[in-house]
Structures are given as C-alpha cells and as structure tokens.
Amino acid sequence: MSNSLLKEERLKNFINGEWVDSTSGNAAPVINPANQLVLTNVPLSLAEDVGRAVQAAKAAQKQWALIPAPQRAEVLYRVGYLMKERKEELSKLLTMENGKVLEEARGEVQEGIDMAFYMAGEGRRLFGQTTPSELKDKFAMSVRAPVGVVGIITPWNFPIAIATWKSFPAIVAGNAVVWKPATETPIMAYELAKIFEEAGLPKGVLNVVFGSGAIVGEAMVEQDDIRVISFTGSNEVGRIIAAKCGAKLKKVSLEMGGKNAVIVMEDADLELAVEGILWSAFGTSGQRCTACSRVIVHEDVKDALEERLLAEMAKLTIGDGLDESVKVGPIINQAGLEKINKYMEIGKKEGATLLAGGYVMKEGEFANGWYFAPTLFTDVTPQMRIAQEEIFGPVVSLIPVKSLEEAIEVNNHVEFGLSSSIFTTNANNVFTAARDLDTGIVYVNAGTTGAEIHLPFGGTKGTGNGHRDSGVAALDVFTEWKAVYVDYSGKLQRAQIDVE
Q: Domain 5-256 is classified in which CATH homologous superfamily?
C-alpha cells in the first residue's frame, strides 16, 4: 500500500485547486484510536480561510453550471473509477484514522464508489417536468437549477461515505462545494480532494477547509454566498445551525442521529435476529447514527434471546481494526469513551440489569487505545435515559413488551426517528410495522443498519428537518425548482384572466 499521505506531517487546505496552509498556522494531531499514534496533523483554519474558499467556489460555480450535466457527470465517473482502483489503500487509511474494522472500512469506501456511479447517472437525467399549459400556443415546464455554493459539514464516523452523499449530487447538479470535514478524520477528505483533482474537476468547484466547527463551521453558516448548509452531526449543533440559517433564509439539510430499535416478535427467527442485533449494535463499535441501541423484545422470547445474545457477544473479537480477525474496533477518542462510561452508572441507578460489558478496556493490548466492552442491559423500561438518549457506543438495552402494538409505541416514544427494524414471520406484522413505525428507514428481518445509496437516507423528529441524503431525494437539497413558460402566441396572455 502507498503511504504517501502518512509522510505528510501536516495536511493543507484545498482552495481553488491549490494546496495551501491555513491562515492561523495552527494544527491538531490526528490520532489513531486503536493505539493513540499520531498519523498526521490537521490545520485549524480561520474564517478568513473559509472566505477565500467561498470566493473561489462562487467564481468557479458560474462556469461549472454552464457545462452540460452529462459532461459534469464524466468527472464523477472518473472519481468512481479512481476510488475503485484505490479501494484497499483508502480502506486502510480510513481504519487508521477512524478505528472501524477493515471490512467495514471497505464497505464505506464501496458506498462512496456506488454513489459516484449513481450520481454520475443522474447527470443524464436531472429530470424536470413538462405539463400542458391552460392557454393556447404556450409551453410550460419545470427544470432543476443549481443553488450556487454549497457548504457541507461531515462527521468523523463515516468520513468518506457521508461526504460523497452530499458532495456528489451537489457537484453533478452544477454547484460548487466548500467542505469542512471532522478534525478527527481529515485523511479521507485529503484523499478524496486529491482524487477529484486527478479526475479533472475544475479549480474551485471543490474546496476543503479543515478546522473546528466553532470557527470553520460557524463561518460557513454566516457566509451569505453559501446558499445551502448540509450537516450531519449532533442534534444540539444541528438546532443551532438551523436557527442561524433560518434567520438568513438559507436552505439547510440536517441529519442528527438516532435511538434505533430492533423489534423481536415471538414468532421471529431468533438466530437471525441475534445476528442482526450483533451487527447493528456492535458494528462500528455502536458509533453509527443507525446503530441499534434498543432491542424491543416480546416477553415470550425475552429469556431465549438474552441467552443467545450473551453467547454470541462472548465470541466477539475486539482490537485494532487493521487485524482482519477483529470484529469490534476502538471508540473514536477519550471523550467518546468517557461519555459511554457515564451511561453505565446512569443505567444501573435507573434499575437496569447489566448482563455483559459495561467497562472501559484498559489492560494488555488495549492499554494504548480507546476501547469499550460490548455491553448488554436488560429489564430496561422505555422511560430510562439509556433507552431515550443517544449513547453512541457498543451498548444495547433490552426492553420487554407484550404485543406488537406496545412494541411500536415504545419504538416511537423517543426524540429521534431514523431507523427501525422488526424480526417476524407474520406478514400482518410486517405491513403494520412498515406503516406505523415512525422512522425514515424501516427494515424487516434485518438490523437497523445497511442503507443503500439509491434510496433516501434520513429520518423524522429529532433526526432531521425533512430533507434526505442519498437517492434522487438528495438532488432536492442541492437544486431549486424553476418554472419556465414559453408563449408563442404572439400576444399577451394573462393566465387565469384569459381562460374562457
């Protein structure tokens, strides 16, 4: 594998097609969560850097929008092929900066590849509508128009996939992008910018400004020339962004987490359910917005499910994600570890029973990394904080119920509404759950993770504000609808006034 990146002691911003130092000159270390080794350093940029990026994007976008969309799409095809060629290298670098196990990193990079090809296909579609006019000798249609400069703010847990969900549709639609990646995981942004550069994207169409949310993210929100902010992160920060964008009448797309549940009915295939729970709860060490953190189980199979879960949890291998035998990697940083650990005492004080895990792993091979033992609470009630609040770690709470109706009520009785799942062999249960579960994503006989890029991704309530990443729905975030009327009657026609 090429280690060209790891020879870079400090990354640089990518502005107007050039790699440039930040104005501040300050930087922060990028740390491998598996062993706390420093991989590189990430610039801590200032508002001035954002301003330069925005001006470059604004100038570039005017020309980029004039290029026919199928030609814009050709750049995305090239990006997809380059990502495919470098999939293994990108996956290993992702594991090193993020901690997720290598097979998950490969899956995330593949998601970006899929998104490149999918959105490139939209370059030959970007469909509008034609419709009959109510007047003679008049043509009516609607078209998608780019919004201009788009600001994207992405999290550390999916440092390349989420960026492709946002940047690829924005670019194919004729926009220019200013991107603030998470400071914990800037390497994927660096690599993707290099790929765009190699693919021939014109200067200024993609700009990467590294730095904190408090400075760089704030500056992006305040920039009048950024007309859309697409943000994935915490509910708290998302609400602040929404309020500030609202004051500026700026379009904003928010995806802000989940408190996702797997429902296991009494007729479920328990072996399959356990497999789905394990993958959803402990994949990415529970650090997914779609991770399963609640299991709502019918009381008739609660004991059997617990027994099977405990047996399979005991087989989980934990460690450095670069080890192909490892199934659960580290937590992103010390702060994340401490947050998870606090919820252990909260759960116990609330009366939940701790069946497995519940502690920071510090001994032996885990001494230099940030690891938390896969954790299972049982006899949890829906009102407990561990059943209501997003913990963002490998922690699952079992909640017993007596019926499907109660299970759906418990599922919906949380602040978030991202993903839900039901395991059942009853067709009536399937369609009732699909209708009544108040989440943007519903899985049947699968866990709460595994979204595909051609369907909309997002949720209800505290998860978002009605917009979606992925699929054709993503284009609605990055385009404006324009109605066009062509009157070839040779006279002034006054719409409804002249209709007989």
A: Aldehyde Dehydrogenase; Chain A, domain 1 (3.40.605.10)
Q: In the numeric block, which tokens belong to residue 304?
A: 């059997």
- Do 5-256 and 260-444 have matching folds? no
**pTM (2 d.p.):** 0.96
What is the pLDDT at residue 8? 78
In whole angstroms, what is the distance from residue 489 CA to residue 500 CA?
16
- Of the candidates 104, 184, 245, 289, the residue annotated as catalytic is 289
Q: 312 catalytic, yes or no?
A: no
Distance CA 270, CA 138 (A): 62
Could you read off the pLDDT of 350-371 as tens digits, one per residue?
999 999 999 999 999 999 999 9
Domain residue spans of the chain: 5-256, 260-444
Dist CA 320 CA 97 (whole Å): 11
Residue 118 in this model has a pLDDT that exceeds 70: yes
Using the 8-state DSSP alphabet, how is residue 150 labeled? E
pLDDT of residue 7: 65
Can you say whether the dihedral through the CA atoms of 433, 434, 439, 443 is positive or negative?
positive
Please provide the size of the chain in residues: 500
Which one of 97, 191, 255, 390 is the catalytic residue?
255
Q: Contact 105/91 with Cβ under 8 angstroms?
A: yes
What is the overall mean pLDDT for the chain? Answer: 97
Q: Does the active-site annotation cover 289?
A: yes
**CATH code for residues 260-444:** 3.40.309.10
